[in-house]
Amino acid sequence: MRKKNRKVKWNRIIWITVCWVIVAAVQAAYELAVLIVNGVETHDSRTISVMVFTNMFGGFVAGILGGYMLEKFTIPWFSIFPFGKSLFLLFVFFSLVFLTVVLVLVPFASFLANPKIFEQESFDSLLMKGFNQADLWRQYFFWATVNGFTMIAIFVSEKYGPGVFLKFLQGKYFHPKKEERIFMFLDIRGASRIAERLSEKEYFSFLKNFIDDATDPILATKGEIYQYIGDEIVVSWPIKKGLKKNNCIECFFEIRKVFDELKPDYIKHFNAWPELKAGMHTGEVMVGEMGRVKRDISYSGDVLNTTARIEGECNKYKVDLLISDQLFEKLKRVSKYKFNNLGNILLRGKKQAIGIVSIELNN
């Protein structure tokens, strides 16, 4: 549809850099240990210091440069190119980063070991010696492996959402447990009419863009994407994260702000744009791992059904955002929001009435 301005996640680049510096330090320590175990005469303390520092500095440079390239270019490629082509481009980018780091480190390490080295040898000869060393290519394959594991970790995080895979590893939800959470059912108003006007391919592209464009505001407000149901996104927050800075409410208005800005693009390409409506509710749910082949973390409880019913009332009351009174009582009252208590209503399929509140932004 258009070139997307994907925000670079600097926190992830920092984590990559920290991890790679630690790996580089461990690698240097291992190589020194191997020298000692094999009875090889160890170098003087200055040379050892240069070796360790050079490795860690190389990990730092590679982490910053490689992490930025992964975030800015490589990860988006996997969503716009075939998997094989993306892997090839990843290999090319890694090779370029590795060669760049070598160009920096070989002269730098030589200078640290011998400050007068450039009086004795030319810059070109130092580089040629560096590239002709068998150790260089051993380093290449070692860091190619590290880069591969880094990409696996990133893709798993992208697949399950930030922090979810770590919960799998910890076995946090191996046994079902109760949690208090906030849920939001985010829907496109009039999606059926849009689907009728567009071809199947165009409508699929419309939904794909909708989900992509809604993702960053959800993550920025600490939301966890639970499910995609047709044109609907189900978002969840642990109660503390959802209430902090009114993240759950901010999420809806931040998403709407994004689509207000992108309206001309959607109109141009689809002659339609996502007008949003949402319902929110909070309460206790059972959460645990589900499935043997397609393993996932699932939630069950009346909270989800109630949230879906609340979202379904938006058209009736001609509002964009409805929340339950249980959630309303927990929110911080701030002047930027306008609350309108609509009273108790009996939701479809429910025996007990529930209070609902509409929320708008004050001008």
Tell me what the CATH architecture of the largest domain is: 2-Layer Sandwich
* Percentage of residues assigned to helices: 55-70%
Low-confidence runs of at least 5 consecutive residues: none
- The pLDDT mean sits at 80
Number of domains: 2
Estimate the strand proportion: 15-25%
Basic shape: elongated
CATH 4th-level superfamily of the largest domain: Nucleotide cyclase, GGDEF domain
Rg value? 27 Å
How far the N terminus sits from the C terminus, by CA atoms, comes to 32 Å
Number of helices: 14
What is the CATH class name of the largest domain?
Answer: Alpha Beta
> What is the ordering of alpha helices and beta strands?
HHHHHHHEHHEEHHEEHHEHEE
CATH topology-level fold name of the largest domain = Alpha-Beta Plaits
Biggest sheet record:
8 strands, mixed
Q: Tally of extended strands?
A: 8
Based on secondary structure, the structural category is alpha+beta
Task: Describe this entry's structure for a reader.
The protein is of the alpha+beta class. The chain has 2 domains: 10-160, no CATH class; 164-361, 2-Layer Sandwich (Alpha-Beta Plaits). Helix content is 61%, strand content 18%. The chain is built from 14 helices and 8 strands. Helix 1 (10-37) packs across helix 2 (45-80), helix 3 crosses helix 6 and helix 9 runs antiparallel to helix 11. The radius of gyration is 27 Å and the shape is elongated. The protein starts with 9 loop residues before the first helix and ends with a strand.
